[in-house]
Design brief:
Elements (H helix, E strand, L loop, with lengths): L6 H4 L9 H9 L3 H16 L4 E2 L13 E2 L2 E2 L12 E5 L9 H14 E7 L6 E6 L1 H13 L15 E2 L13 H11 L1 H5 L9 E4 L8 H4 L2 E7 L4 E2 L1 H9 L4 H4 L9 E4 L4 E4 L9 H5 L4 E2 L4 E7 L13 E7 L6 H17 L6 H8 L1 H8 L21 H9 L1
Parallel strand pairs: 7-8, 8-9
Antiparallel strand pairs: 1-3, 2-4, 4-6, 5-6, 9-14, 10-13, 11-12, 14-15
Helix pairs in contact: 2-3, 4-5
InterPro entries: 4Fe4S_Fe-S-bd, DsrA, NiRdtase/SiRdtase_haem-b_fer, Nit/Sulf_reduc_fer-like_dom_sf, NO2/SO3_Rdtase_4Fe4S_dom, NO2/SO3_Rdtase_4Fe4S_prot, NO2/SO3_Rdtase_4Fe4S_sf
GO cellular component, one term: sulfite reductase complex (NADPH)
Pfam families: NIR_SIR, NIR_SIR_ferr
């Protein structure tokens, strides 16, 4: 094999950070597809133009999604990268694997693909980078034989993803992994057969720390929370203070709603439960003294997304508190109402949060049957006019 020269890509290997170029070179040493990928990428840097061709649909039997077609626009120059399709593989909840299962998957991918992985893509899936159209079906078949299914792509439910939750986290309010597994199994048709205007993501974080970044990365975020007062161990608080912990600067002055205070005479931490917004800062600062409450469930946020049609959006509260208990029927019913309404009214490539922004939250709430609540206010009113539905005017007049 002739020497591969990539002077521009070599620059990306310099410095203290890990480099994707180094990993591609490792795969290129034994795989011609990875080798041509390097050559094409070097050409793109040199010529200042991308060499992936737009368009092209490819898939496997029984699935409408899960495979992203990728074709080189210069197949004669890069023959082993002329087809370089990506396979999205559904990851286990919480990203828990056994080494045997990873070896099984690696054996299949070495046989049919480039040997390159993205563990994990921003959507959560295991991303297998680079295979041919001919190898797609046997690769997916053998992945299924060792226990791996495809994830979502296109206008479908994207692969649900979550934090590790109760498996390792002391502040978990819900079983994020059980919720993720249940909705993955329940929505198999919506996952594998795209039928919606665009993608729909559900991500689950077991507590308000939001380690899955669900509020920013999902159309419907499930954030574990407690409804009652947080638990305070006053003796442990005093131990923090007596050991030199600056409770005023590190906790009390950083409470966003000024819900806590320190009584220096009683040597006790005081909490105004009605003002607490469960931001988790005090718990994170004093984990031995403060604990999440006993009445646990989840807040549901709607509309989070990265920028495409409209700019980046952070999810806002849709349901302040929902008990998340198996088999999660209340949650599933709400998902069905939201996606049915969105499928009927959404434009092509319009995410559900963008549709709500376009039509109005009041219309959305009326359509899915949720009563308006103060927690749902996304931003203060920007105009002074108040509009009423006719039936509300009549009802108001009767009073």
């Amino acid at each position: 094999m002739d020497e591969l020269k990539t002077p521009l890509l070599d620059e990306l290997e310099k410095g203290e950070w890990p480099s994707f170029v180094k990993e591609i070179k490792r795969a290129a040493a034994k795989n011609p597809g990875a080798r041509d990928l390097l050559r094409q990428l070097e050409a793109s840097y040199r010529e200042k133009i991308g060499h992936w061709k737009h368009g092209g649909i490819v898939g496997v039997k029984g699935y409408g999604g899960g495979v992203v077609g990728r074709y080189s626009d210069d197949p004669e120059r890069f023959p082993h990268a002329k087809e370089f399709h990506t396979i999205r593989v559904n990851q286990p909840a919480g990203f828990f694997y056994t080494t045997k299962k990873l070896r099984d998957m690696a054996d299949v991918w070495d046989k049919y693909g480039s040997g390159l992985y993205n563990m994990h893509g921003s959507t959560g899936d295991i991303i297998l980078l680079g295979t041919t159209t001919e190898n797609l079906q046997p690769c997916v078949d053998e992945l299924a034989d060792v226990g791996f299914d495809l994830g979502g792509s296109g206008g479908a439910l994207r692969t649900p993803s979550c934090c590790v939750g109760q498996a390792r986290c002391a502040t978990a309010c819900i079983d994020s992994m059980e919720i993720t597994r249940e909705i993955t199994m329940h929505y198999q048709n919506e996952l594998h057969r795209p039928a919606w205007p665009y993608k729909f993501k559900i991500k689950v974080s077991a507590c308000p720390n939001d380690c899955a970044a669900a509020s920013a990365r999902s159309d419907l975020a499930v954030i574990g929370v407690w409804r009652d007062a947080l638990l305070i161990d006053q003796a442990a608080v005093r131990e923090y203070v007596n050991n030199g912990f600056n409770i005023f600067d590190r906790v009390i002055r950083k409470c966003p709603t000024a819900a806590i205070d320190w009584d220096s005479q009683k040597q006790e931490l005081e909490l105004r439960t009605e003002d607490c917004v469960h931001c988790m800062h005090c718990i994170n600062a004093m984990p031995k003294a403060l604990r999440i409450g006993k009445e646990r469930g989840a807040s549901l946020l709607i509309g989070g997304k990265a920028p495409v049609v409209k700019g980046a959006m952070i999810g806002w509260v849709l349901v302040p508190f929902m008990k998340m208990e198996p088999p999660f029927n209340e949650f599933k019913d709400l998902v069905d109402k939201i996606t049915d309404w969105w499928a009927e009214h959404g434009k092509n490539r319009e995410r559900v949060g963008e549709l709500i922004d376009r039509i109005g939250l009041s219309v959305f709430l009326k359509e899915i049957g949720l009563p308006p609540l103060p927690q749902m206010v996304h931003a203060p009113r920007s105009n002074p006019y108040i509009f009423w539905y006719p039936e509300e005017v009549e009802k108001h007049g009767e009073k």
